[in-house]
Amino acid sequence: MGPDFRRLWAASAVANLGDGVAMAAGPLLVAAITADPAAVAGAAFAQQAPWLLFALISGAWADRLDRRLLVVTVDLIRAAALAILAASVATGTATIWLIYAVLFILGTCETLADTAAAAFVPALVPPSRLPTANSWLGGTFTVVGQFAAKPLGGWLFAIAAAAPFGLQAVAFAGAAVLVGGIRSLSRSTAPSDPAPSERPSMVLEIRAGLRWLWGHRLLRTLAVTMAFANLVYCAAFATFVLYAQDRLGLGSTGYGVLLTAFAVGGLAGTLIAPRLLRTLPAAVLLRAGLLIEVALHATLATTTAAPLAAAMIVVFGVHTMVWGNVVWTLRQRSVPSTLYGRVTSVYSFVDLGGAALGSLLGGVVANAYGIVPMFWTAAAAMTVIAVVGWRPLGVATAVFRAPVPG
User: Fold this and answer.
1) Cα–Cα distance between 292 and 275 in angstroms, integer?
2) What gap in Å lies between CA 161 and CA 158, rounded to an integer?
3) According to the 3-state scheme, what is the secondary structure of the chain?
4) Closest among 95, 23, 24 to 250, alpha carbons compared
5) pLDDT by residue (tens digit) across 193-240?
6) Band of pLDDT at residue 402, cut at 50, 70 and 90
7) Are the beta carbons of 385 and 292 closer than 8 angstroms?
8) Taking residues 113-126, what's their average pLDDT?
9) Burial, 401: exposed, middle or buried (Cβ in 10 Å; 0-12, 13-18, 19+)?
10) What is the pLDDT of residues 45-82, one digit of tens each?
11) Measured between alpha carbons, how far is 116 from 63 in angstroms, rounded to an integer?
């Protein structure tokens, strides 16, 4: 798919290595400082809150600015923030508030980088190759970011608590170099680039993205459905490190290994997603995903056996990659390139905003009622979400097969 896509793929691999290592080590660091479920959940909220605060603005900037330069800049900022965190952990001066601050910076940068980078794939590969390109990137996220990096993160944290965060800092710096080498991306990857005096106001640009997404019935349904699904998922999983320690009896390394169950399922999902997309209707895949989410929460609410929990997480991992591939392709086939940043940011605002609120809610509820009741509540809520979203998702198959807009 060309040397520039390979650079993007390599940058994704490097960044996902750092992310995966820190994803395992971050909760362990917070849990080492405090056992308060609300404080542990607060770390997740600190990184997700920027999607509520800045996602819409980030989308407008991604359509105005040089997307490649924007991604390089925020990757370097993330590298600097993580280097500070690594140094503070190494010197024993890390506090919960410093961790929150670094996570908030990372989340803010993520709103810009993810929104800008979302337009890279349709700009670098032909429309017929979009599902394959998405599978490659999804596979990299799974194999590197989850399968390899998460056990490594738990192991590194057990040896030297600062090491995972130092590795993540280096990874983001490397990703910045690789993205900077993608030469075929135009200034904005959009067909037109009006002069600043001719541009509408930021508010009007954001409203255009809002109107477009709200007017597209399927993408609106997917965004709202996943907003509520992420709310209940993150409410249940905000204190997952405590669930693994207290309910399943796992230590730091065991927790890192348990997280690889997501990767095992994700890898399987990545391998089979292109074939499933060719043989099964998109609507069937999306509806099956809703049922799997119900089963995940119900299983974790009832079991105390780590192998059974891991098996269900594997199934969930398959679902996440198949669902993600379907949604990415649907969005790439539906959204005009001139609106891609803004529509993606609105989608992310709704989708990940639900995740942020869920993390905040999960800490409060877990602190008051315990960790396991959150999984029961999530199972019940996902059942309602599946029932409401079932029929509207029926149009996904036709949209999935539609031509890519100009």
Assistant:
1) 19
2) 6
3) CCHHHHHHHHHHHHHHHHHHHHHHHHHHHHHHHCCCHHHHHHHHHHHHHHHHHHHHHHHHHHHHCCHHHHHHHHHHHHHHHHHHHHHHHHCCCCCHHHHHHHHHHHHHHHHHHHHHHCCHHHHHCCHHHHHHHHHHHHHHHHHHHHHHHHHHHHHHHHHCCCHHHHHHHHHHHHHHHHHHCCCCCCCCCCCCCCCHHHCCCHHHHHHHHHHHHHHCHHHHHHHHHHHHHHHHHHHHHCCHHHHHHHHCCCCHHHHHHHHHHHHHHHHHHHHHHHHHHHHCCHHHHHHHHHHHHHHHHHHHHHCCCHHHHHHHHHHHHHHHHHHHHHHHHHHHHHCCHHHHHHHHHHHHHHHHHHHHHHHHHHHHHHHHHCCHHHHHHHHHHHHHHHHHHCCHHHHHHHHHCCCCCC
4) 24
5) 455 555 567 778 788 888 888 888 888 888 888 888 888 888 888 778
6) low
7) no
8) 77
9) exposed
10) 787 778 778 877 877 787 777 888 888 998 999 899 99
11) 8
Q: What is the pTM of this model?
A: 0.64
Here the tokens at position 159 are: 């040896």
Encoding tokens for residue 179? 């993205």
**Structure tokens, 270:** 């990545």
The size of the chain, in residues, is: 406
